């Protein structure tokens, strides 16, 4: 297989796939019905013309037959009147009208058969059209049901649900990050102990220690003063 034939086949296949995907059953069914209506209209026009032709040939056949009968009477009358030459001429006309009548009869019968076939064809087309019209409504309803069912399936288990699920998961992760950032921001924003505060606290601790030492020294001195007096009282007793 040549490369050009393969390319052609691929192109044709791609075009057919594209056309198949573009075909809307409802639109195409309506178009087919319009095409059938046009075809039926054309056949009706053709049948009308054929019927008119049939009537014309029948009329000509009847007129020629009437002239044959008329000339036959004239031939007989001329013979009775002993008008042989006139009878001969009337007989010649009679034969011409007989030939013409036979020709018109054949044309009429042919036109009549054609008109009958065309009427039958028209009847079949109309019956098929009525069947197709009834079937169109059924197919349109089925197409609508299938389209709705497809949309529902896509909404429930299709791409839309998956996208929504991924979106919710992404938003949940974002909320978790926001909460974590808020907690971290609260920790970092707690008031920190500055250098001045630390030195003041240290000085307070030193003062407290010094005051405690002084207090202990005073108490110890007081104890030493009280003990000699207590000794003297004991000796006097």
From TrEMBL:
Keywords linked to the UniProt accession: Coiled coil
Coiled-coil regions, chain positions: 87-135
One Pfam family recorded for the sequence: PspA_IM30
Family: Belongs to the PspA/Vipp/IM30 family.
Protein name in UniProt: Phage-shock protein
Organism: Brevibacillus panacihumi W25
């Amino acid at each position: 297989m040549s490369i050009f034939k393969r390319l052609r086949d691929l192109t044709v296949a791609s075009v057919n796939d594209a056309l198949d995907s573009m075909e809307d059953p409802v639109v195409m069914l309506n178009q087919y019905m319009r095409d059938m209506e046009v075809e039926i209209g054309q056949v009706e026009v053709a049948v009308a013309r054929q019927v008119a032709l049939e009537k014309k040939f029948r009329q000509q056949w009847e007129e020629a037959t009437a002239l044959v009968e008329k000339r036959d009477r004239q031939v007989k009358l001329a013979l009775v009147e002993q008008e042989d030459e006139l009878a001969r001429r009337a007989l010649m006309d009679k034969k011409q009208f007989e030939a013409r009548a036979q020709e018109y009869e054949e044309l009429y019968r042919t036109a009549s058969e054609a008109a009958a076939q065309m009427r039958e064809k028209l009847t079949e087309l109309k019956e098929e059209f009525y069947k197709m019209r009834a079937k169109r409504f059924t197919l349109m309803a089925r197409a609508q049901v299938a389209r709705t069912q497809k949309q529902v399936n896509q909404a429930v288990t299709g791409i839309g649900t998956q996208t929504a699920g991924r979106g919710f998961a992404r938003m949940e992760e974002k909320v978790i990050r926001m909460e974590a950032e808020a907690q971290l921001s609260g920790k970092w924003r707690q008031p920190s102990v500055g250098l001045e505060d630390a030195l003041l606290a240290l000085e307070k601790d030193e003062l407290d220690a010094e005051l405690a030492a002084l207090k202990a020294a005073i108490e110890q001195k007081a104890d030493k003063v009280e003990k000699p007096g207590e000794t003297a009282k004991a000796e006097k007793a």
